[in-house]
Structure formats: C-alpha cells, structure tokens
Amino acid sequence: MGIYSTLPGNDYGYKDGTSIATPHVAEIIALMLSAKKGLTDAQVRQIVTTTVANSLV
Asked: Residues 39, 32: contact at Cβ < 8 Å?
C-alpha cells in the first residue's frame, strides 16, 4: 500500500518510495523547527529516528 497522491495525466493513485515520503518528512521537520527554532541538526535527527523507531514497534 502507498500514499494516495496525484499522478501524471491529471489522475490519482497510490505511490510509494522515497519520492513520495520525502515531502512528508520535510514537512514534519519544518513544523518541528517552527515550533522550536533552536533545534540542532543532531536533535532533529534524533527526534525523527526515535519517533519512527517507536511507531514501527
């Protein structure tokens, strides 16, 4: 299963992989940085990887 998204040819369907995941991760990081502007790269990486690891259990 993938993420429902726009497709070429003015269509919709399910896509998966890094091309569809990257915008979602970027959005999450942008929201994190807007909520707490002083986060370092290492802190952002730690939060993201810990959260993902916890959601996969």
From this structure: yes
